[in-house]
Design goal:
The protein has 400 residues and is an alpha/beta fold. It is built from 13 helices and 12 strands.
């Protein structure tokens, strides 16, 4: 007998749970893309995306996933032969670096491993050593989805300024936008990339590049940018089709419109606080389980953990055993341990991740934690007691 029948819970770090309101908004006939109301729809979406990113500058939208946003951001401000400094705290920092190299951009990677934040002293030293200003840009990931590390973006901006370096500051917020606090303008970010399928609660297929006037001026100085990736008309079109360089992703836009309404009705700061409380409850549960047994949070220091995703070390093969048990017996899908070990290495089976981004609340989180607790008991995996009580106490202490 399986107890997994019923509504399945998707607890992976993206694509995230899609709200019923978003699905319902998308379930409609195709619109007349030449009608005037399409202009109003797009203008409102663009404005609300900028509110969420906390910027008064520019936003370009693409029919693409996060990798498309990576390429678009690079293509508009850099050229083959340019050099960038990439700060890696997991798989996705390295992924953005690989994208840059594929475009002929020379990359220098400072790798801070899989369990720590960016070392600001090392960054400052690298920038101060670059007296000829070879680095045209510094690339960093706000939250690496694989490791669940949260990097201090404001402190990184301050470090660049302290070094007196003119490099463009480019940040990946694909996992964090709408989950972890992010202040594009106040924190001095020049270019930021994001996607629709995580904190924005919309099916995969759209990505966004936000950029300020400094980045726009670099684009203007370039003689060649691929027409499809060029952000100029996408951010400020003369005709409707220029928002997407052709036919728009109509039904994604209807869903995104409702998702943004939900975020702004709740309030961006309230959304951040909700994610913070729920992620603290999850971290508390795992710390409690780990007091007597193999479970261990990948990021040890609470303030360095993302509010959107939690990466867990369980030891091989228990990571896979736990994932398979909760899927088969509780109707819960947990994320794989992405980038923590080669997938051909037996150690790959020692990791998993819990996604808690976007459309998530306390009963969903407690249900996932309860399922993991049951798995630990069913699989005879050693663990400390009282994890669910500890998590529920966090939630109880933060009720409205």
């Amino acid at each position: 007998m399986s107890l997994s029948n019923g509504r399945h819970i998707l607890a992976i770090p993206g694509p995230s749970v899609i709200p019923e309101q978003v699905l319902q908004a998308m379930h409609r006939p195709g619109p007349n893309i030449y009608a005037p109301e399409q202009w109003d729809l797009m203008a409102g979406i663009q404005a609300d995306l900028k509110k969420l990113a906390r910027t008064s500058h520019h936003c370009a939208m693409y029919i693409a996933n996060g990798h498309g946003a990576w390429e678009a951001a690079l293509a508009n401000v850099l050229s083959a032969g340019d050099q960038v400094l990439v700060l890696a705290t997991g798989r996705f920092g390295h992924g953005w670096a690989a994208m840059a190299r594929s475009l002929g951009i020379e990359t220098e990677v400072l790798d801070f491993g899989l369990r720590s934040t960016i070392d600001l002293a090392k960054v400052q030293a690298a920038l101060e050593a670059d007296t000829s200003h070879r680095y045209r840009a510094v690339l960093a990931v706000h939250v690496d989805t694989a490791t669940s590390v949260l990097n201090d973006t404001k402190a990184l901006r301050d470090t660049i300024d302290k070094a007196g370096h003119p490099a463009l500051f480019m940040v990946d917020c694909i996992a964090s936008l709408g989950c972890d606090q992010f202040e594009m303008d106040d924190w001095g970010v020049d270019v930021m990339v994001a996607g629709c399928q995580k904190g924005l609660m919309t099916p995969p297929g759209m990505s966004f590049v936000f950029f300020n006037d400094k980045a726009a001026s670099l684009r203007s100085a370039k003689s060649l940018v691929s027409p499809y990736w060029d952000w100029t008309l996408r951010a400020s079109p003369d005709e409707f089709y220029q928002y997407f360089g052709g036919t728009p992703p109509t039904h994604h836009l209807y869903g995104l419109r409702v998702a943004l309404d939900m975020i702004h009705q709740e309030g961006v700061k309230s959304v951040w606080n909700r994610h913070k409380v729920l992620s603290t409850a999850i971290g508390t549960a795992f710390d409690t389980w780990g007091s007597d047994g193999p479970l261990e949070l990948n990021i040890k220091t609470a303030e360095n953990r993302s509010c959107a995703v939690t990466a867990v070390r369980a030891g091989a093969p228990d990571g896979t055993r736990i994932r398979e048990w909760v899927y088969d017996n509780a109707g819960v899908t947990l994320g794989i341990g992405l980038g923590m070990a080669d997938n051909k290495d037996p150690e790959w089976h020692g990791f998993f991740r819990v996604g808690h981004m976007g459309h998530v609340n306390s009963q969903m989180v407690m249900g996932v934690l309860g399922s993991i607790d049951a798995a630990l008991k069913a699989l005879n995996i050693s663990h400390g007691g009282g994890a669910l009580d500890a998590a529920s106490s966090i939630i109880a202490a933060n009720h409205c």
